[in-house]
Here is the input.
Amino acid sequence: MIGTSLSHAITAVPPKLIIFDFDGTLVETETLVAQIISSKLAELGRTVSPADIAATLAGVPRAQEATLLEALATALSRCLNVAT
Here is the structure.
């Protein structure tokens, strides 16, 4: 029977690793990250709401987030006259 042999083949070698991606499904980290960035900016004397930060980062691929945040840090350091 084909179904039985297929089932046996699938379970014959158990996976060594299973990765669950909960971000955006069970866990919403975007809001938390925006709150953390807003808090850190407030420590530097700049008020930017978490909603504005979330809107800026929304839809940006992870690979581009770092570049965007680095550009933001550079711009803020110039405004605040601090080294990055």
Q: What stands out?
A: The two ends are 65 Å apart (CA to CA).
